[in-house]
Amino acid sequence: MLDGNYTSDFKEKALASIFDVYRDSKDASLISLMESRLTAFQAKNFEDLEKTASRLLTMMYAASGRYAEARDMAQNLRMKDADDEKFALMQLAMLEGFSESERAASQSAIAEMRQKYTSSEDEAFLAALGVSSNDSKADLVAGEAEDQGLIGYPNPFNPSTRIEFTLKKADFVTLKVYDVLGREVATLLNEMRQPGVHSITWNAGNAASGVYFIRLSVAGKNVVKKMLMLK
User: Fold this and answer.
1) CATH code (residue 189)
2) What does the alpha-carbon distance between residue 147 and residue 31 come to, in Å, rounded to a whole number?
3) Position 139 confidence tier, pLDDT thresholds 50, 70, 90
4) Which of 41, 69, 82, 120 could form a Cys-Cys staple with 61, CB 3.0–4.6 A?
5) Do 154 and 209 share a domain, yes or no?
6) Could you tell me the pTM of the whole model?
7) Among candidates 190, 128, 213, 200, which has minimal Cα distance to 160?
């Protein structure tokens, strides 16, 4: 299909289909397939298809634990096309949610996003990572979630997971779920809670497989936990 005499639009949809199947199956052979397609598009100077394959590979690498390759792919996208800068920064910003080893690249990308992009959509994405676009200092992020008592189990999960957190004193609590684009998926709590350990179950049966961010907001501070749903 990808080698045939089809339109670029049709081939882009085929690439997206490969990504969708990978997201649900985590079949590593699909990464190899996407890599071979990227190489073919580069050889034929199919720039639009090369860009699409590169974007999808960036996300596939991150989801499969190949963080250095995800970082390199995102950086290459930035250098090749200014239109890809925001996408690349978003992918780099999320890497810390996958691995603490990517903290430096993630924090650098977050700082750049906060400086350059200020739309409501951009602010929503940063909020999903536990970062305020206006503050001079970033709020707590995913790597510190456990220190603040925010956990989710099981993780990965299918289709429900229990979110647990601890309050040292009574306070107003907001607990929300965001997808990787910063879109709000669910509000689990938005109320006063007493001191102690609290837990709530998120049933994500209607959501797609993939990465989600649980954001706990208490007393003006945010902590974020990355969760992975695998159907």
Assistant:
1) 2.60.40.3080
2) 34
3) very low
4) 69
5) yes
6) 0.63
7) 200
